[in-house]
Structures are given as structure tokens and as C-alpha cells.
Backbone:
């Protein structure tokens, strides 16, 4: 989509700046990783550097670069 999401830690799952809110199709992303559960991120939030898409989803981006 051409949207660059903020990613301070470069995708290591450490900073949380890439957090998105999954608005529709929650089941179309892979299960939360240990980095996400450690940060106590709960549905509908995910770290976009950790979640892999299985099908199309609709997300709300918290911070765009
Ligand atoms: S880029 Fe830092 S947690 Fe995703």
C-alpha cells in the first residue's frame, strides 16, 4: 500500500513503535510472537514487524513515517 510504518528498532520486536490495530480479519495474521506477549499486547493490537499476513487484513496504523 506504500505506507511506511515507524520501526525504531528495525523490526527486532523491541520498541513497539510499529504497533497496529487489526480492524478486520484478525485470523488472517500469524499468532502473536513471544516479543508481543512479553509486551502484553492484546487483541486487536499487533507489532507489524512480527505479524505475518496469511490473507488481506484491515489495520489502523498508529504512527506513519
Ligand atoms: S519495529 Fe520495533 S517492535 Fe516492531
Residues:
Amino acid at each position: 500500500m506504500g505506507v511506511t510504518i515507524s520501526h525504531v528498532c528495525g523490526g527486532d520486536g523491541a520498541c513497539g513503535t510499529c504497533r497496529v490495530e487489526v480492524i478486520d480479519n484478525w485470523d488472517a495474521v500469524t499468532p502473536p510472537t513471544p516479543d508481543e506477549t512479553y509486551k502484553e499486547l492484546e487483541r486487536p493490537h499487533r507489532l507489524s514487524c512480527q505479524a505475518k499476513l496469511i490473507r488481506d487484513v484491515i489495520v489502523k496504523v498508529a504512527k506513519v513515517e
Remarks:
- DSSP finds one helix and three strands in the chain.
- Residues 7-9, 11-18, 47, 49 surround FE2/S2 (inorganic) cluster (CB under 6 Å).
- The longest strand covers residues 19-24.
